[in-house]
């Protein structure tokens, strides 16, 4: 199978399904799941991922209204929640597409209510509560509870849900998590005292799900990185929920040559050969999201063996040492992320050696990298981000 000649990301949708099942099995039966598909499904492609996880979720979370609209345009009908702030210039679209905003200020809720009333509809909203992230949300105090009561009286909105987000659920020490969760449940009680009930309460992220935290007992959890088969950190347990990475990054050797002692490789000549070596060129670089900070440190897999990066990663190419892989040939498959035979290069490994963050690596796989979707080892779909049209610059 060679769907592209330069580089591609293979997305294993069977792994996505297996990850959803594994999480489902670790949740109380009455707890629903929301699939977080922001940043285009953490770089995997929001639409194919949403389609794949649809049987397991009650809804989806995205970062912006535009991400939500893309899902709607591809036939996703379930609940969609925007996790960030939505500008009032987009309120009509929120109502039109029935996409839920996260809200926490009275005025924005009032304006949305007016918009919905004018359109003859009701807008569903989820309240964002700030229990410690200091990102967005209302403070969980009596004043906010009074405000929520007033929101609940507005004719054009329905408070469908309320959530908070944990800053440290992925850490070994759960003290901060516990304090945040307590602040949230106390706030739920303050609202109950005002006869405001919240149908969908949700707090847990992937860390909460794999760590079997108490907040999994609310109405819903928000699964993010775990859908894609990565654990949120190396401090979370890996026994309760077995995850399988869904993305592999594959390329091909474009050129092989022999260099002599004293020869330098790539910009700056940071690698100098001390013996005769066989060097392979890979047509991938930081322009594809393959980190330059892997220069001289990372490795790739060729014929099931590790080949280390020589010198700097360039924008579109880099070189590896194949001296000890004598069979290596031009056009051979190269694995930058994923498995080849017994060997495996994980996103976590790349994060570790580059000094980066695993979430950032998958989100940063570039638009020059086509995504290829696999089920039962067969290609069932593709997405080529690069084959795109500019507006305003004419056409041929
Ligand atoms: C991104 C995000 C999530 C998912 O986080 P993961 O660590 O990927 O599970 C959940 N909730 C909110 C509010 C988020 O911003």
UniProtKB/TrEMBL annotation:
Source species, domain of life: Bacteria
GO BP annotations, alphabetical order: D-alanine biosynthetic process; peptidoglycan biosynthetic process
Keyword check for Chloroplast: no
Cross-referenced InterPro entries: Ala_racemase, Ala_racemase/Decarboxylase_C, Ala_racemase_C, Ala_racemase_N, PLP-binding_barrel
Alphabetized UniProt keyword annotations: Isomerase, Pyridoxal phosphate
Binding site residues for substrate: 135, 315
Entry's EC annotation: 5.1.1.1
Reactions this protein catalyses: L-alanine = D-alanine
Listed GO MF terms: alanine racemase activity; pyridoxal phosphate binding
CDD domains to which the protein is assigned, alphabetical: PLPDE_III_AR
The keyword Endoplasmic reticulum appears for this protein: no
GO cellular component terms, A-Z: cytosol
Known pathway: Amino-acid biosynthesis; D-alanine biosynthesis; D-alanine from L-alanine: step 1/1
N6-(pyridoxal phosphate)lysine modified-residue sites: 38
Required cofactor names: pyridoxal 5'-phosphate
Catalytic residues in the record: 38, 267
All copies of domain Alanine racemase C-terminal, residue ranges: 246-374
Function statement: Catalyzes the interconversion of L-alanine and D-alanine. May also act on other amino acids.
UniProt similarity note: Belongs to the alanine racemase family.
NCBIfam families per the UniProt record, alphabetical: alr
This protein's name: Alanine racemase
Organism field: [Clostridium] citroniae WAL-19142
């Amino acid at each position: 199978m060679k769907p592209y000649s330069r580089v591609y990301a293979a997305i294993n949708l069977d792994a996505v399904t297996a990850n959803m099942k594994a999480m489902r099995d670790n949740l109380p039966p009455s707890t629903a799941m929301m699939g977080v598909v922001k940043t285009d499904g953490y770089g995997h492609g929001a639409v194919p991922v949403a389609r794949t996880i649809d049987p397991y979720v009650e809804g989806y979370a995205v970062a912006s209204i535009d991400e939500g609209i893309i899902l709607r345009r591809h036939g996703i009908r379930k609940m969609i929640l925007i996790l960030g702030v939505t500008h009032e210039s987009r309120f009509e679209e929120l109502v039109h597409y029935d996409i839920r905003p996260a809200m926490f200020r009275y005025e924005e809720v009032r304006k949305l209510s007016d918009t919905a009333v004018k359109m003859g509809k009701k807008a569903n909203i989820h309240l964002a509560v700030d229990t410690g992230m200091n990102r967005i949300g209302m403070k969980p105090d009596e004043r906010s509870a009074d405000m929520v009561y007033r929101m609940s009286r507005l004719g054009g909105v329905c408070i469908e849900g309320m959530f908070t987000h944990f800053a440290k659920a992925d850490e070994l020490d759960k003290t901060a998590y516990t304090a945040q969760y307590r602040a949230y449940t106390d706030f739920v009680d303050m609202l109950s005292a005002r006869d405001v009930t919240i149908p969908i309460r949700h707090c847990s992220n992937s860390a909460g799900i794999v760590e079997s935290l108490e907040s999994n007992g609310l109405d819903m959890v928000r699964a993010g990185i775990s859908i894609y088969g990565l654990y949120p950190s190396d401090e979370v347990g890996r026994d309760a929920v077995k995850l399988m990475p869904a993305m592999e990054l594959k390329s091909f050797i474009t050129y092989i040559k022999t260099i002599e002692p004293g020869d330098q490789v790539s910009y700056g000549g940071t690698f100098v050969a001390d013996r005769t070596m066989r060097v392979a060129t890979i047509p991938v670089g930081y322009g594809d999201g393959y980190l330059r900070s892997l220069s001289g440190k990372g490795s790739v897999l060729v014929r099931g063996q590790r080949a280390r990066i020589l010198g700097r990663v360039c924008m579109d190419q880099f070189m590896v040492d194949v001296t000890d892989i004598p069979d290596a040939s031009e056009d051979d498959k190269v694995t930058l992320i994923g498995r080849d035979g017994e060997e495996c290069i994980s996103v976590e490994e790349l994060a570790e050696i580059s000094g980066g963050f695993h979430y950032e690596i998958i989100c940063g796989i570039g638009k020059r990298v086509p995504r290829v979707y696999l089920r039962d080892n067969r290609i069932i779909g593709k997405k080529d981000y690069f084959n795109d049209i500019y507006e305003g610059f004419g056409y041929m």
